[in-house]
Specification:
five-stranded parallel sheet, alpha/beta, 11 helices
Amino acid sequence: MAGAMCEPDQRMNPSPTVLAVDDDGFVRDLLRHVFDAAGIPLQTFASASDLLASDRLHAPAVLLLDVMMPGMTGLELQALLRERGIALPVIFLTGSADVPMVVAAMREGAVDFLEKPFDKVALVDCVRKAFARCADAPVPAAQGSGPDHARRLRSLTTREREVYDRMIVGQTSKAIARELGGSFRTVEIHRARVMEKMAAAHLADLVRMAFDARAAE
């Protein structure tokens, strides 16, 4: 169903469109600049209700959703579309990601979860990979998943792995220090080493890697 819905009709629409929903006008303008420069068609909406009122959801598209918006949040919009059987790929943008939020988005089938301020090159690359899903192309393995993810996990020391296991379920450094023993500063050092060894850009990235790796098992 998802493949049929996303698959581009070369006669009517040569490529999918990015449908971006963000209540911040500055972000919408920035996204227009980014995707215009990349030659990727984009349509922006100021709210989830604006998107739902449009006729764009039944055409080839990738959804780029802000998480925290007035009215309906990005996560609520994702769940609603899923209920309606609209299986377009979803990429989230957020200025305040936390672990439960990332896990919830991934469980609902999100392609990726990027934090603001976003890297323009990484965002465009992520959208192009989502377009590949629309075309029913083989989905590239997530960065850090598979054998590479397993190899990186093996590179962690015993204490780093203990810290890693608690990081990906959302425990703070203070909570980890209380549970494992040791100082807050020591845990912070372990967290930094975990992020470096796992090649994670941020905590949401680390959680996404772990989630993808478990889903592939």
